[in-house]
Amino acid sequence: MPTPRLATPLALALLALSCASAPPPAAPVPDAKPAPAKEAAVSVDENAANKSDAASVKALAPKVTAAVLDKLSREGALAAAPEAIKARVERGVTQVAAAWRAEDGGPEAFEELCVRWFVADPKARDGLLDRFASVFEQMDGHLLEIGRALRSWNELEYGPEQPIDAMFAAFDVGAHVPEDLFKSKIAFVVLLNFPLVPIDEMAQKGRSWSRRDWAAARLARRFALRPSGAALQARAEASAASEAYIAGYNLWMHHVLAPGGKRLFPKGMRLITHWNLRDQIRAEYAEGDGLARQRVIRRAMERIVAQDIPKAVIDDPRVDWDPFDNTVRLAPPEVTETPRPEQGKRAAQPSASAEREPDTRYAMLLGTFRAARQLDRDSPMAPTEIARRFQLDSELPEARVESLLRAVVSSPLAARVGKLVEKRLGRPLEPHDIWYAGFMPRATFSEEKLSEITRKKYPTHEAYKKDMPRLLEALGFSKEKAKWLDARIAVDPSRGAGHALEAGRRTNLHPSWGGGDFPHLRTRVATGGMDYKGYNIAVHEMGHSVEQVFSLYGVDSTLMQGVPGAAFTEALAFTFQHRDLELLGLQKPDARSERLRVLDSFWSTWEIAGVALVDLGVWRFMYAHPEATPAELREATVKIATELWDQFYAPIVGGKGSPLLAIYSHMISSFFYLPHYPLGHIIAFQLEEKLKGLGTGAEFERMCTIGRVLPDLWMENATGKPVSAEPLLDATSRAVAAEETGGR
Questions:
Q1: How would you class 163 by CB atoms within 10 Å of its CB: exposed for 0-12, middle for 13-18, buried for 19 or more?
Q2: Strand residue runs (E) in 513-568
Q3: Does residue 43 sit in helix, strand or coil?
Q4: What angle do CA 42, 48, 52 make, to 5 degrees?
Q5: 298 and 344 housed in the same domain
Q6: Dihedral sign (CA 263, 264, 268, 270)
Q7: Domain assignment of residue 49, given as a range
Q8: Which of 244, 277, 434, 619 could form a disulfide with 607 if both were Cys (CB 3.0 to 4.6 A apart)?
Q9: What are 621-654's pLDDT values in tens digits?
Q10: Segment (H or E) for 535
């Protein structure tokens, strides 16, 4: 996954990092207490003062508008387009009034700012837009680089961590910048001169806008919120705490036992929740005896969600655990691994206690929720985290996204595809088969065989970096473009599963000061080389990094850097990831493999759409019950997950009452991120139809340089049609019919 778009410090407030392929990096001390953010107290007097001052300033807007127009008239600035300029003044003054607070000054200060800083001349306004583009490129880019440096010891495998590193990782040097931009009045100059356009207006008028119109809209939307430094710092602290908790949530699988105390997994296998656990289930489809191991992992996942997993077994290879009867015992010394220093910290002595984890998972989730609520006070356009995710991030309405997801999970095609899976497995389906991976060619290779290839090919992260030009050429980029991209992507050794950290600055202010910044691809390389899981994730993150290079260096204005939202950047990365075996020389696409790819895409989307609906349901519960305890949140989460499971999944894969849909770690640390993934699958399917055959690299580059317009407009420019699940469902229907008739 990519880290959040940091084109602005505000974007950090809206999008916490997390990705299906990117668990957080830092590992906590096992006894560390959860640190949910406390809601900052706001006094009645302070609120009353702000409301009173805002009301008085708003009431003055017509008077101030008249004063601005009077000045422009005396200067002769109204002659060219009086009605258009008048409309701009009215809108700008209203926007400033809406964001004004008591600490910004009284009515006189409000009027003085508007009269002084409104720019009527089109050329001068264009110059102002360009200046803001240059300033924010430098500001955002350098803040991103500082944050990347401060988190390096936590995120990268460059030796043992020190206790102070977690504090550096939690420290956000840009936390107060958004509020400082308002205090300095810079933000008000933006709001006075450029329109803060609601989504419905953007959708209605955006097709006729010029590129400069879009750049101006993007500039103004960065000030759609006015987050306090305290709110942003609370978010950073909650994010760091929950990420550290998840990063330390590993299971040593040699010590996770099958019934009868059998050890089914090799010594040294340490899997992080949920990423590696899920991926190990997928890998077992290529093994003749994988079913028993899949059942062990599934039962462990269910224990994690229900929080009846014994605390002592988390990330400790000195303890054996049977997840079926939930018993714990000390592991015999001869089978106990010795963790490397970078593999986290644990208690000095192991414990054989079966005492359950005390709802820490849900205390962490409540911590992220309470941090998010501090931002609610500063966000009148989108007053909840849910609203911000849809209105200010994905820029698709909540109801439409939910409708897209439900169209997939409720599709009758799921039952038909399930029958194909059952036939291929030769047994009734079980709950873990939502992660069935047998449609794709990788299922014909064992995990160990694939890892043998990747370990030999990539013994270090440097070896992967060295091979990137070849990989990029194989993905359809010219030799020259592959070299150009390779020169603009750094590769780092990750403590977590891997992620892509974008750049925010393509130039220095003056050429003599040096060049721009580049994205950083973080990849995990275990002792002995990069295993297949790490390779698969690295290819996905390489897709993010390539998109990040093009969408920064190729877009006409840095104010439009990026793609419409996280779902789009995930979709573009999926188009790389789906070709991972082809890049190893193990796959030759044909008509049947294309059908199987479609079925795999549908099955994966069906699974993750349910996960996203659980995430949505849980955040709705927290907003409806803001005083809920961790225990109450656990009960609600399990209820939401099992009800959705029983309605859509149990009829196909069994396991009535399973809470598996709530296992994703993103729910805990990522501030309502999961809906991006099924959207990403839906969008990726549309994009892949355009990214086939010769010219793939050039087409990928063209898409990435469209810039941050609205999702439907971007998709129409990229593929000719708006965002829709219909292409995926239609292709699945054809593929199912062909498979049901033996490929005829």
A1: exposed
A2: 520-523
A3: coil
A4: 140
A5: yes
A6: negative
A7: 44-120+181-221
A8: 434
A9: 999 999 999 999 999 999 999 999 999 999 999 9
A10: helix 532-553
